[in-house]
Amino acid sequence: MSGKAIPKPDDLNLKFFQKIAETGRMHVQECRRCGHHSHPPRYYCCECFSPDWRFKEIGGDGTVYSHTLSHYTAEPAWRDELPFATVVVELDEGPRIVGSARTADPASIRIGQRVRVLPERRGDDFAFFTVVFDKDGYPDV
Ligand SMILES: [Zn+2]
């Protein structure tokens, strides 16, 4: 993964990524008033408009909501990984999150497959999200 550009999140996204980088665990925003989960984080709950929330640790389990397979990239740092799959995962808590697939056969990805999203820390302010597949076995987290 060396040489890949590291995004510089700000505002609530920075707090979200800092929590993940600090703990090494997946988190999602949870409303303390109604329990609704949100991603990306928001100042006010989109269900009850409460400003009272926290980042709740989650296991990262979910299902493939959508995916795409890239055979070309303009970014040199990603060329060694072609073809690579980008996956939208619907977390069991409800929100959807985007990650990069880690599988030997990215063309075999199917909507509805069980997956787990794992954070890969990149400094204090960011983490990539890697999607691993049940058939590959989940690493110990
Ligand atoms: Zn709420």
UniProtKB/TrEMBL annotation:
<protein>
    <submittedName>
        <fullName>Zn-ribbon domain-containing OB-fold protein</fullName>
    </submittedName>
</protein>
<dbReference type="InterPro" id="IPR052513">
    <property type="entry name" value="Thioester_dehydratase-like"/>
</dbReference>
<feature type="domain" description="ChsH2 C-terminal OB-fold">
    <location>
        <begin position="57"/>
        <end position="117"/>
    </location>
</feature>
<dbReference type="InterPro" id="IPR012340">
    <property type="entry name" value="NA-bd_OB-fold"/>
</dbReference>
<dbReference type="InterPro" id="IPR002878">
    <property type="entry name" value="ChsH2_C"/>
</dbReference>
<dbReference type="Pfam" id="PF12172">
    <property type="entry name" value="zf-ChsH2"/>
</dbReference>
<dbReference type="Pfam" id="PF01796">
    <property type="entry name" value="OB_ChsH2_C"/>
</dbReference>
<dbReference type="InterPro" id="IPR022002">
    <property type="entry name" value="ChsH2_Znr"/>
</dbReference>
<feature type="domain" description="ChsH2 rubredoxin-like zinc ribbon">
    <location>
        <begin position="28"/>
        <end position="53"/>
    </location>
</feature>
